Amino acid sequence: MITGKKMGAGLLSAALVIGVIGCGSSEDKETNTASKGTDTTSSSETSSSKTEKVKITYSMWGSAEEGSVTQAVADKFNASQDRIEVEVVSIPWETYMTKLNTQATGGQLPDTGMLKEDGVIQWSSEGMLNDVSAMYEGSDSKPLDSLAYKYQGKTVAYAAANEILLLYYNKDMFDKAGVAYPPSVLDQAWTWDEFVAAAKKLTVDKNGKHPDEEGFDANGIVQYGASVENLPWQLETWTLSNGGGFYSTDGTDVRIGEDASIEAIQKVADLYLKDHVAPLSVGQTDDGIQRTIIAGTVAMATNGAWNVGTSLNTAKEEGLNYGVAVLPYMKEKVTLNTGGANVVFSQTKHPKEAMEWLKWYNSEENNWGLISSGIWMPTLQKWYTDEALTRKWVENPNFPPYEEYKSAVVDYAQSSAARPASWFFTNYTTDFNTLLGSVLGDVWTGKTTAKDAITKNLDALKAAHTGNK
Amino acid sequence: METIHKPLKRRSRYNSSEARVAYICLIPAFLGLFFLTYAPLLGVLGISLTNWTGLKSPQFIGFDNYVQLFTTDPYIKDSIIATIYFAFLSVIGSMVYSFFIAMLLNRKIPARGLLRAIFYVPFVLPAAAIYVGWSWLYEANFGFFNFLLSQVGLNKVLFIADSSYVVPSLSLISVWLSGNLIVIFLAGLQNVPGVYHEAAEMDGAGAWKRFIHITLPSMSPIIFYNLLMSLIANLQVVTPALALTNGGPGNSSRFLTYLMYDQAFVNYKLGYACATTFVIFAILAAFTAVLFKTSSRWIYNEGGDDK
Amino acid sequence: MSAAAYGRLRSRKRNERMMNMATFVVVIFCAALVLFPIWWIFRTSLMTNAEIYRYPPSLTPDNWLFSNYEKTLQVFKFWKYLWNTMIIIVPACLAGTFTAALCGYAFARLRFRGKNLIWALCVGSMLLPAMVTLIPLYIGWTRYLGIHDSYLPLILPYFCGGGAFNIFLIRQFMMSIPRELDQAATIDGAGYFRILFSIIMPAIKPAMIVVALFIFIGLWNDLLQQMIYINSSDKYTIALGLTNFRGQLKSDWSLTMAATCLSFAPGVLFYLIGQRYFVEGITLTGMKG
After folding, report:
1. Is C264's pLDDT higher than 60?
2. What is the predicted ipTM?
């Protein structure tokens, strides 16, 4: 039997040894990665006189795989010239902004990177971002105007991609019910009432009855006609469409208390409450399209353009017959466009190199994978105006038929209907949207009306908009 | 927590070599208490008096954060209510559930080891994944529970999409996860001296009377420990909000720790979040103090206590 | 025994047997209820995505697609994440258990000035949610100590007693060991440390295993701390990998659930192995006060 002392000493030394090995190996990994320039200050050292490559880091959200795909793209850039070398760091989406914020606190920010839409203006207002208006001087094409993030008149970021909101629909469900497809041409867009009427024809309960028919059982619905996402930032679309909005056009005043805005929100809620054409929006997941169009449980759904590439292309291969259309409208035709931002952090020591990299990276030829799969839409104007380029973008098996997509998405995105989401020009959109989401919580289940919810909390909403809760 | 009595210079009470050994043994604890607990606590207090957002240097603003928290914050009141409501349901639910199952498992039934393992298993599973799995069962339109309800002819319940049902729904998951309490209760039950039961039976006491007068009192120290652990854990609930509800619908599941997380890591209001942290700490301390104070009245202590 | 008494005894025994049977049925029913959500996750991992969204939902998959697990392993580096997680957990368990024993010993057996005060501070620290100290600790590690992307902030804290709960547990167990054993050893000339290592620690072995289990579970599930301290993807732990995986797959639920089921396995295994000690420990020494 081992004496207690030996056992104790053994345990202690074992623990220490393992601890040291643990520390050691992670330190080894640290020095290895440090030499590759991730997240450490060595990356921002200025180049020596011996034309050494300037090293800059670029952070993005995504998995390790997405990171290596981007690094492969960056390597093309690195090989194409000998002044700049780019290192790509990928961070999971859920923790991206937290990570970046803690890096900022520690002075460890990369030179450039992506930034979530609702953080851009706030970071700008704290002086963390560089002005990038010089990026496209002298180029043959600029990004669409609606894709520039502006703070105090200066452009502080361009969106890395374009995304707009569309109406998706399941063609097979429409054929079975004998209902005409929603229009893909902006001029023929449905009014809200036409939209609801079509949805009613596509909603059936377990006895085959439609809403408005005798004996319709709202508790026994087996198929729904429509689903409109009620995420706060997407609700802005409908308030604008009804003649109201979240904010005034310059972002200074809050307009959500206006009757038009409130009415719009109530109409969206009524799709479930009164019209019985929509399922209760559960809103917390990002698989809206899978739950509706792809599952065959809902015939129409509003969602972002990225779904073409994230889920619909696979579903299409598996036999889904889907279409894209423009959104219905209440009084004005509106869709929102948005896109995550690529920024240059003010902590960088190489602003010019950073901008050069971003401009190269943003140019569509260099991002072809994401664009041809349908996840990202291009940012530069020429892809929307030059037909040859548009065909190059759209004509591939991942997309719906060319004419349909061109009219419902390409033309839609550059029409006057496309408005930038409010985080392109207003600060504290996170605070506002979070508060709005919580204020409207009981509206969707009918426990309170949009009018009551918003009027009671209007002051709080206004306060959130100015950054004091 | 008695105060230290220092009798007049009777150093013989403290053997100096014993004390030395004790202090050496306690070095890890000292380090931990200082660096991991109390220094950060002071840090939190300090940060709560500033308006730090992590992006630029902090500025001292005194108690402004606290004032704002209690006057204009739109979330804090609902948050406190939601947290206490959840803790109340979960603690009582888990205690009753685990005690009940422990009583059942205490009998001579086959495969006890396996059954005990089954009840314990939820505790070792990764929490975030669990919540996602349950979310499908609870789904308002197409979920399994609603399917069952519709088969029986009842109306759909919106569970976690309904502000009145979300906390009970989450509490149910918490109770399901509390298998670790069962094992502790079971061990305690097996320690109740059999002689008491036999004596009482011979005196003609029925099962219920025996339960109230023998089982419960003997188990009271264990009940106390489980109650304390459960209360502390459940008042700090955050994972369901993080993984599932994001505080909704409305504010009905915006638990305090989730609120703090949101303020600190989503809105970067570090100073403000630290003020909320202090509120959490105060509530926890209050409940624990009440529990400890009332404990002497209902805990029956067999072995004597060295506190 | 009289005939009447014998009769009463027999009927009591019969009642008891019937009660046991009834109990058994109830327990089986409850166990099935408890297992149901786990079954739900498992069956989801074996379906295609289209099946998952079907309504009415099906209890069992149409085809048992174990191939989903193959697919998952190709993308989800399970073994690597497991290894990483173990690098954190093993030192933490060993260090935590050992230091908890040291500290518990001091509180349970030794007398010294300030004991009550220090004990009060210790108990007080149990009230601090980890969230509370998160921010200052993060700033301390990264800004003042300059440590980035490392496991140190996750492991080192366990060298400080493994947490007040564990010290509390060990203390309780130690207090239930008769002091006569100590006294016998002292008479034989053993010093305090000798007593601790040769007598006390072996006697509370089950409790130490319990502590190790608690540390394991605590670290296994501790997503937030892992999120903020670990940067590079080849250092991911299981919890981190799972979160990332979900985002990466953009709601390919069947694979996500398969990855989840894979992550269940180590925890369950650890419990099954340690179960014997765990229950033995609590049963033998009791949890009085």
Report:
1. yes
2. 0.74
User: What is the model's pLDDT at position A201?
Assistant: 92
Query: Quick check: C279 and B116 CB within 8 A?
Result: yes
What pLDDT is attached to residue A202? Answer: 92
Query: Inter-chain contact C228–A63, Cβ cutoff 8 Å?
Result: no
**Is residue A17 less than 8 Å (CB to CB) from chain C?**
no
Structural domain count of chain B: 1
Could you state, in order of their start, the residue ranges of all structural domains in chain C? 3-65, 69-288
Highest mean pLDDT among A68-77, B80-89, B254-263, C52-61: B80-89
The reported pLDDT for the residue numbered B138 is 85
Cross-chain residue pair A101–B265, CB shorter than 8 Å = yes
Helix H or strand E encompassing A177 = helix A171-177
CB A146 within 8 A of CB A136: no
Instruction: Say which amino acid occupies B232.
Output: I
Nearest Cβ partner for C148 among A39, A66, A310: A39
The per-residue pLDDT for A327 is 92
**For chain B, what is the mean pLDDT?**
80
Q: Is A369 exposed, middle or buried (0-12, 13-18, 19+ CB in 10 A)?
A: middle
Give the per-residue pLDDT at A284.
54
Of C95, C138, C232, the CB nearest to A15: C95
* Residue with tokens 């104070």, as numbered in its chain: B293
Q: What is the CATH number of domain A163-337+428-465?
A: 3.40.190.10
Q: Do C105 and B122 touch (CB under 8 A)?
A: no
Contact A5 C232 (CB under 8 A): no
CB distance C55–A222 less than 8 Å? Answer: yes
Residues within 8 A of A (CB atoms), B 242-281 only: 244-252, 254, 262, 265-268, 272
Residue B305 has what pLDDT?
40
Q: A264 falls in which pLDDT band (50, 70, 90)?
A: very high
- With cut-offs at 50, 70 and 90, classify the pLDDT of residue C47: confident
Nearest CA in chain C to B135: C37
Give the CATH number of the domain where residue B85 resides: 1.10.3720.10
pTM: 0.77
Cβ-nearest to A106 among C54, C142, C150: C142
Q: Helix and strand tally (H, E) in chain C?
A: 15, 0
The pLDDT confidence band at residue B149, using thresholds 50, 70 and 90, is confident
Does B247 reside within a domain?
yes
Nearest CA in chain C to B123: C217
Contact: B74, A442; criterion CB under 8 Å: no
* DSSP codes, A95-163: GHHHHHHHHHHTT---SEEEE-GGGHHHHHHTT-B---GGGGTT-S--B-GGGEEEETTEEEEEESSBE
Domain A47-162+340-387 has CATH 3.40.190.10: yes
Chain C residues within an 8 Å CB radius of B41: 128, 132-133
Q: Where are the domains of chain A?
A: 47-162+340-387, 163-337+428-465
Q: Is C225 on the interface with B (CB under 8 A)?
A: no
Cross-chain residue pair A26–C150, CB shorter than 8 Å: yes
Instruction: State how far the alpha carbon of C240 is from the alpha carbons of A103, A266, A388, C84, C126, in Å.
Output: 19, 40, 44, 11, 26
The answer to whether A164 and A146 are in contact (CB under 8 A) is no
Q: The domain containing residue B261 runs over which residues?
A: 75-304
- State the pLDDT confidence band at A47, using cuts at 50, 70 and 90: very low
C105 touches chain B (CB under 8 A): yes
3-class secondary structure per residue, C169-210: HHHHHHHCCCHHHHHHHHHCCCCHHHHHHHHHHHHCHHHHHH
Which chains have 3 or more CB–CB distances shorter than 8 Å to chain C? A, B
Q: Cβ contacts (< 8 Å) between B51 and chain A: which residues?
A: none
* Cα distance between residue A443 and residue A256, in whole Å: 15
Q: Which residues of C touch A108 (CB under 8 A)?
A: 142, 148
CATH superfamily of C69-288: MetI-like (1.10.3720.10)
